């Protein structure tokens, strides 16, 4: 991981010290609502200060009948460069500081309202900054906080856009910690982003060096824009003349505001960063992208959006984003992945995407479930190129195992029909941090990242201890239903008569009817029947002898109460003479896709239960063949290494040494 620059850390500490001024008048969870927009405002102020007079002059000379778009373009022209923001207020931070402190609130509002409309939206609608300014004024803190921010130099010559990303994310992490929020929902460790970017870009390196290359990058849960910024940095490092267009969408208002602000000052179109829920309000509908990457929230339910998502699934089917299926409502990770796949370019250039997820999407859900069907869809379409298991304790809000999925619709010839699994969770791929950041105790150093990319590039020639290549069908199976015959023995006993009385259908009878039926049962011989037909015949005779007529549900209750399973009994058969299955003995077997289920059953089932058979009515909904198709990817199975237990002699020796040490300590205490 590239370490956070020292100047960024010192700026974060300084901003944090300003937050301490709010203690008592603001809740700790509200500090970010003041500090973050002030940081953005200060950054914009320093960027726009050199062209301030030119913008004011241009604004003063605009024709009265000019339309909004022409006005915007002329004012941006006065700003120059690639910056897509202007401010027509006469104020700057320096001039605000020269004014009467009592007028600061009014002047700051004037300053904010002087920004271009898209920036006004950031401060007024997303940061709700005017509300915070009023609270600061009422608490008598506005001048103190503003004055401290004038001391921070955030000019691009002092702190780059990449360093600004570090600053924002460090502040978000701190504010999230003190308010018990999940900082990991806002950003991803930089070394993980760099790994994903390298894996996405490496196969295209040669082609990216041509002239006139344009690449579009998309993150459907972009947070503060860290993934987008690092992808652009990596692409520009390959070809600094490349045109990189960044697109994203974010649900969190503050993160969206920061990301859009960054786009404004780095020359990107801010309209390409959208606000809202990606899963229900796709702001980039109809667009496809060359590169996509994301770290969607783990284990976050989509219950609130269930109706909208399932409506799209049902109405649009495979033409929509979720036609392959929907996962359980408690986890929406695979919804984001399907959304990204829907934005793959169908042309020759195609698309590559990387996404960080926890272990659930690998194996959760059996055959026929939404998760399994989504995996099936991806693997049968041959989009999954590689999956990399990362070390634990990498993320700020969780220590769980995470995985990077790499997908593409333009695999190289060697990779077609194949999936590479890389186990980068071992000690050689991480190092401990000197100071933990929340749950983040480890990081992936640059050399380890390069090794992982090297393993990926080597493909089937990589170290087999940590990299394995499989056919896509190796992860598939057919879940067949194995039945065994029902064998029942019947006997009339006091205990079973009591059990019959508890049967719902029998309990509904009038008391007199119950008594007559029980009397008839007690007339049966005191014996054990091991053949159901023989017992049914004897039962019919006993009931007839007592002039008792039982409806079918009641008769079924009688048979159920008086029977028990008996391996020595005869097989129960239906009206066609076929064996009836015993639901209690029903089992399933998972047959690898590459093997006929008949062969599997003869080898794995028949030798142990010769009377078993396969329910051939249990078929797959898609191909109609026997057994439901399922897919799962079990990393532990493929990379498990048996470690033999230590010899007993060694353990015994260690125990004796510990006993001796304890005895010595006790003597010292007693003395």
Please specify the SSE layout and strand pairing.
Layout: H1 6-19, H2 31-48, H3 52-60, H4 68-79, H5 93-98, H6 104-113, H7 117-126, H8 129-138, H9 142-149, H10 161-178, H11 190-201, E1 214-219, H12 226-238, E2 243-250, H13 253-265, E3 273-275, E4 291-294, H14 306-316, H15 333-341, E5 352-358, H16 360-363, H17 370-380, E6 384-389, E7 402-408, E8 418-423, E9 431-437, E10 440-443, H18 446-458, E11 467-471, E12 476-483, E13 488-490, H19 494-502, H20 504-507, H21 511-522, H22 532-545, H23 552-562, E14 563-565, E15 587-592, H24 597-604, E16 613-614, E17 628-631, H25 635-639, H26 648-670
Parallel strand pairs: 1-2, 1-4, 2-3, 4-5, 6-8
Antiparallel strand pairs: 5-7, 6-7, 8-11, 9-10, 12-15, 12-16, 12-17, 13-14
Helix pairs in contact: 1-2, 1-10, 2-10, 2-13, 3-4, 7-13, 11-12, 11-18, 19-23
């Amino acid at each position: 991981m590239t370490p956070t620059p020292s100047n960024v850390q010192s700026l974060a500490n300084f901003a944090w010290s300003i937050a301490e001024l709010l203690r008592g008048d603001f809740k700790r969870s509200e500090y970010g609502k003041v500090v973050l927009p002030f940081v953005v405002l200060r950054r914009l102020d320093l960027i726009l200060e050199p062209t301030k007079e030119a913008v004011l002059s241009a604004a003063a000379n605009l024709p009265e009948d000019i339309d909004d778009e022409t006005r915007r373009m002329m004012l941006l022209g006065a700003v120059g460069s690639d910056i897509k923001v202007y401010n027509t207020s006469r104020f700057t931070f320096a001039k605000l500081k020269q004014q009467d402190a009592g007028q600061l609130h009014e002047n700051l509002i004037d300053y904010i309202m002087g920004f271009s409309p898209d920036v006004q939206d950031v401060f007024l609608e997303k940061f709700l900054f005017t509300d915070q300014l009023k609270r600061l004024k009422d608490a008598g803190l506005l001048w103190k906080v503003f004055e401290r921010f004038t001391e921070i130099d955030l000019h691009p010559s002092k702190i780059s856009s990449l360093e600004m990303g570090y600053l924002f994310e460090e502040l978000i992490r701190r504010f999230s910690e003190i308010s018990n929020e999940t900082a990991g929902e806002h950003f991803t460790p930089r070394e993980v982003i760099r790994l994903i970017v390298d894996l996405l870009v490496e196969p295209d390196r040669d082609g990216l060096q041509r002239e006139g290359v344009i690449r579009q990058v998309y993150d459907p849960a972009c947070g503060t824009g860290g993934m987008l910024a690092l992808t652009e940095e990596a692409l520009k490092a390959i070809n600094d003349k490349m045109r990189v267009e960044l697109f994203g969408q974010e649900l969190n208002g503050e993160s969206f505001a920061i990301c859009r602000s960054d786009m404004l000052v780095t020359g990107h179109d801010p309209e390409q960063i959208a606000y809202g829920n990606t899963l229900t309000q796709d702001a980039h509908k109809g667009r496809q992208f060359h590169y996509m990457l994301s770290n969607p929230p783990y284990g976050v339910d989509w219950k609130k959006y269930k109706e909208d998502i399932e409506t799209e699934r049902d109405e649009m089917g495979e033409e929509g984003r979720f036609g392959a299926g929907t996962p359980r409502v408690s986890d929406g990770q695979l919804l984001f992945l399907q959304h990204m796949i829907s934005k793959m370019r169908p042309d020759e250039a195609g698309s590559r995407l990387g996404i960080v997820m926890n272990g659930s999407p690998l194996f959760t859900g059996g055959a026929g479930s939404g998760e399994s069907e989504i995996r099936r869809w991806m693997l049968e379409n041959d989009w999954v190129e590689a999956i990399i298991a990362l070390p634990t304790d990498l993320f700020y809000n969780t220590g769980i195992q995470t995985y990077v999925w790499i997908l593409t619709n333009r695999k190289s010839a060697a990779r077609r029909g194949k999936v590479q699994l890389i186990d980068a969770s071992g000690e050689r791929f991480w190092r401990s941090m000197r100071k933990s950041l929340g749950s983040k105790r480890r990081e992936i150093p640059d050399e380890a990242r390069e090794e992982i990319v090297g393993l990926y590039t080597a493909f089937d020639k990589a170290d087999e201890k940590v990299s394995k290549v499989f056919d896509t069908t190796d992860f598939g199976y057919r879940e067949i239903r194995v039945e065994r015959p029902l064998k029942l023995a019947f006997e009339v006993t006091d205990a079973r008569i009591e059990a019959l009385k508890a049967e719902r259908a029998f309990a509904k009878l009038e008391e007199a009817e119950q008594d007559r039926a029980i009397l008839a049962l007690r007339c049966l011989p005191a014996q054990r029947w091991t053949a159901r037909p023989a017992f049914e015949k004897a039962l019919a005779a006993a009931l007839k002898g007592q002039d008792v007529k039982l409806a079918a549900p009641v008769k079924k209750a009688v048979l159920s109460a008086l029977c028990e399973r008996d391996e020595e009994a005869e097989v129960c058969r239906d009206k066609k003479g076929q064996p009836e299955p015993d639901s209690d003995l029903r089992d399933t077997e998972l047959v690898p896709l590459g093997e006929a289920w008949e062969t599997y059953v003869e080898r794995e089932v028949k030798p142990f239960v010769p009377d078993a058979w396969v329910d051939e009515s249990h078929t797959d909904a898609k191909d109609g063949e026997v057994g439901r198709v399922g897919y799962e990817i079990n990393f532990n199975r493929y990379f498990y290494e048996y470690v033999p237990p230590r010899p007993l002699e060694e353990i015994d020796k260690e125990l004796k040494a510990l006993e001796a040490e304890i005895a010595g300590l006790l003597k010292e205490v007693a003395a």
